[in-house]
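Annotated sample (chain length 445).
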Amino acid sequence: MPFDFDQLIRDIDSIPDCSRYGRVTAVSGLMVEVGGIEKELSVGGRCIVETRDRRRIPCEVVGFRQGRALAMPFGALDGVGLGCRALVAGDQAMIYPTDAWLGRVVNALGEPVDGKGPLPKGPHGTPIRNNPPNAHSRARVGEKLDLGIRAINAFLTCCRGQRMGIFAGSGVGKSSVMSMLARFSAAEVAVIGLIGERGRELQEFITEDLGEEGLARSVVVCATSDEAPLMRKQAAYMTLAVAEHFRDQGRDVLCMMDSVTRFAMAQREIGLSAGEPPTTKGYPPTVFAELPRLLERAGPGVVGAGTITGLFTVLVDGDDHNEPIADAVRGILDGHIVMERQIGERGRYPAINILRSVSRTMPGCNTPNENELVGHARRLLSSYDNMAEMIRLGAYRRGSDPQVDEAIHFQPALEAFLKQGKREATDLETSYAMLAEIFGVQWPQ
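Output written by the structure step:
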């Protein structure tokens, strides 16, 4: 492999001419107070604290108090004491992705964690904390995107550049749905952020759920639950930054994040440590300010650029779909997919409740024939759901309502349509054709 002299020159140019440092004046919980360089730092800036045993802990400035900078570490504070040096490390963190990042697993700082060697640096940097494109210069959402899951393709059609939320309690199948989307979607690149995941599940997701086929066109960003809250929060921003790099190259990117709730929990820990007042369910105000700043980065790019189709999971607390984070995220995104434990308990996966889910690009993205087909199926599902209790009790008498009779007749076939195996893919046209076949309709029309 030829030596990259241009990269060496860029690395040399990035070395600062001098180092400026202050001292640790206090440590309180997760927070480090730094004095002497407070005028050199700003909120969001970086400093590096040197421990007694010469380890270097990167920190981010989250506020100021009584003339001191408040810094949150990216790692454990073991070995940090009064008087430890804190070096100024710059204001804006940048990453330099390339196509060589595809198939790799990185942490919240953009460092490889898959044992496959160092990551090459691209010629152009992307800020980790970027701003979304200007609303007036943004393109509109594109054509329909095949996601490979027929329940979503038919009933909750997603367009390129759309942002959807997947709302579910723990253990209902969010990770399985994400792995299906990564393998089967028609997007060119997938960027997957695993925020606050269990450490043992990372390898399971990569090797079993994602597989070689899915990983080959994906970049996985991970921050496990045992890592510092700042690392978990940073992993979410890193996920969007990598997606923005590929979007700016004109590609259609599928950006998936599991989960936005753990991002909000990490921000809650940071905010409370910085002295913010707790509000709804203990979440400080910055949580509800950071959510739109994160989620708005997904979507269409400027005219002529690519798109970021965002699919963000929300771990609903106690299966309450109206808890604060779920409610806030639902108001920001362009649709929501609701997964319910009761559906999974009766053996139908993905456990999507079609009637409680919505895609805000429908029905505008469909043809009249597609809307008629999907609308008819929805009406039958709704009729059966309304009378389900009476049907199970045997209190409904056939012939009382023709639409309910039709719903009872087609219910087994519709349930089978909504059920799909993890290794089974169904494209958009096949999804409509299978739904039409249930009703005996010739497709395409």
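Annotation: The radius of gyration is 25 Å.
Annotation: The CA atoms of residues 394 and 440 lie 28 Å apart.
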